[in-house]
């Protein structure tokens, strides 16, 4: 009996991709083996994060990095780092930011559900720009001068949500913010592939970059990477680690935490709530090393073969047209004919096995099949079920 059977939890077919709600994706056997091994010994957590930092720095080009419990945790820790710096007293006060730098600037069109993690550090978000291009009224979005005009002595950071469509460009935002001495935090949670993005945002001058470990990277579902400037990473990890130790006994690795820069040891910080376990750190490090050992194109070809196999099985549907859409992540598009896309999603979800597809284009009558979280054994079941529902 599987662990999920013994718990009475049905296993689903995940054709949506590595979303949190449907439990991310799969762990490679090398990742699960490393996690199991990590669970069989004890280590100093700061030493383990310092080792992770060396790997993350090597792969991202950043000065330092840590494993977080997800990209959202990375946003909370980033904001806390930009507000508190290396002051133990400021760390101890969060989320009370009275008298501290307690504003974060965001472009209005980049606001999203995850920025709750930013506000969780005790800052308020100052929105700039009118997303005119999204209303159909025009072509413009926020511009660098609007970010510049919003910067005051209370500005802790600019938070930038990276997508290929984000405006202004990251170069412009970094240029504007750095001219006023303000750090830039990049939410790059879902910006993989391409694997080159692991270095890209850092190379453009971002001060902190958060990636999700449980999405494309194939790390533990509750994991992420935060990389960037050494002093900010030091502040972030100080506000994340368990600090139940006497100052005299505390000997953190200087490569991650330079004890001499601190006036004292803060109590557990605001990020202690998003604790990261040793199994998670080890699992993420192994997943990250595996990710960069394979090219984007090799991954693409495997997924393309999956999508083509699905397309071959779905060539004669009455109520949908199946088409292969190639790209960094090839997908199968199902263009419905005469059916409501949301009804079809619900029908697939309520069947046995339950199937989740990507509904992000449901308004256009299109459902997407994402191959990245499909097991070999899912494919025939998926084709059979889609043929039943779509004729
Ligand atoms: C998924 C996502 C997050 C959250 O990532 P987790 O690793 O699940 O915490 C944050 N921001 C964006 C844009 C995302 O897509």
The outline comes out as globular
Which compounds are bound in this model? pyridoxal-5'-phosphate
Radius of gyration: 23 Å
Number of domains: 2
Number of discrete helical segments: 15
Low-confidence stretches: none
CATH-level-2 architecture of the largest domain: 3-Layer(aba) Sandwich
Level-1 CATH class name of the largest domain: Alpha Beta
Query: In CATH, what is the homologous superfamily of the largest domain?
Result: Type I PLP-dependent aspartate aminotransferase-like (Major domain)
Mean pLDDT: 98
* Strand arrangement across the biggest beta sheet: 2-8-7-6-5-3-4
Gap between N and C termini: 34 Å
Strand content: 5-15%
CATH topology of the largest domain: Aspartate Aminotransferase, domain 2
Run of helices and strands: HEHHEHHEHEHHEHEHEEHHHEEHEEH
Would you report the number of β strands? 12
Structural class: alpha/beta
Helix content: 25-40%
Report the biggest beta sheet as strand number plus sense, adding barrel if it closes. 7 strands, mixed
Report what the structure shows.
The chain is an alpha/beta fold. It has 2 domains: 3-21 and 295-390, Aspartate Aminotransferase, domain 1; 42-292, 3-Layer(aba) Sandwich (Aspartate Aminotransferase, domain 2), CATH 3.40.640.10. Helices cover 38% and strands 15% of the residues. It is built from 15 helices and 12 strands. The strands form 3 sheets. The chain has a 7-stranded mixed beta sheet, sandwiched between helices. Helix 9 links the parallel strand 5 (155-161) and strand 6. Helix 2 (29-38) packs antiparallel against helix 12 (278-293), helix 3 packs parallel to helix 12 (278-293) and helix 8 (144-150) packs parallel to helix 9 (170-179). It is globular and about 70 Å long. The site of pyridoxal-5'-phosphate has 12 residues, from helix 4. Pyridoxal-5'-phosphate binds next to helix 4.
């Amino acid at each position: 009996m599987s662990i999920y059977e013994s718990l009475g939890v049905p296993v689903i077919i995940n054709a949506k991709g590595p979303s949190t709600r449907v439990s991310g994706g799969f762990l490679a056997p090398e990742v699960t083996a490393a996690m199991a091994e990590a669970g069989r010994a004890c280590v100093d957590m700061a030493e383990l994060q310092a080792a992770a930092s060396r790997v993350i720095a090597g792969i991202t080009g950043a000065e330092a990095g840590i494993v977080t419990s997800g990209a959202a945790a990375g946003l909370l820790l980033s904001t806390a780092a930009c507000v508190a710096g290396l002051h133990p007293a400021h760390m101890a006060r969060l989320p009370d930011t009275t008298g501290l730098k307690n504003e974060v600037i965001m472009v209005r069109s980049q606001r999203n559900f995850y920025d709750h993690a930013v506000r969780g550090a005790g800052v308020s978000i100052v929105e700039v720009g009118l997303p005119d291009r999204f209303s159909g009224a025009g072509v413009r979005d926020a511009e660098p001068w609007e970010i510049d005009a919003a910067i005051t002595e209370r500005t802790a950071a600019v938070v930038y949500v990276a997508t290929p469509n984000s405006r202004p460009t990251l170069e412009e935002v970094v240029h504007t913010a750095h001219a006023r001495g303000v750090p830039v935090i990049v939410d790059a949670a879902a910006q993989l592939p391409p694997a080159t993005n692991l270095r890209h945002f850092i190379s453009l001058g971002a001060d902190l970059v958060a990636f999700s470990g449980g999405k494309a990277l194939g790390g533990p579902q509750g994991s992420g990477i935060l990389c960037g400037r050494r002093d900010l990473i030091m502040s972030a990890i100080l506000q994340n680690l368990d600090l139940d130790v006497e100052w005299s006994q505390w000997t953190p690795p200087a490569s991650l935490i330079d004890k001499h820069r601190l006036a004292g040891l803060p109590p557990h910080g605001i990020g202690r709530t998003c604790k990261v376990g040793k199994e998670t750190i080890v699992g993420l490090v192994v997943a990250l090393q595996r990710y960069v050992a394979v090219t984007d194109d090799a991954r693409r070809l495997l997924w393309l073969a999956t999508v083509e196999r699905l397309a071959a099985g779905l060539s004669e549907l009455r109520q949908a047209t199946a088409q292969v859409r190639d790209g960094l992540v090839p997908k199968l598009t199902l263009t419905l004919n005469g059916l409501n896309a949301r009804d079809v999603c619900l029908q697939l979800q309520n069947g046995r096995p339950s199937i989740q597809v990507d509904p992000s284009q449901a308004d256009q009558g299109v459902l997407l099949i994402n191959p990245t979280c499909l097991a070999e054994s899912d494919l025939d079941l998926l084709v059979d079920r889609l043929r039943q529902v779509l004729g």
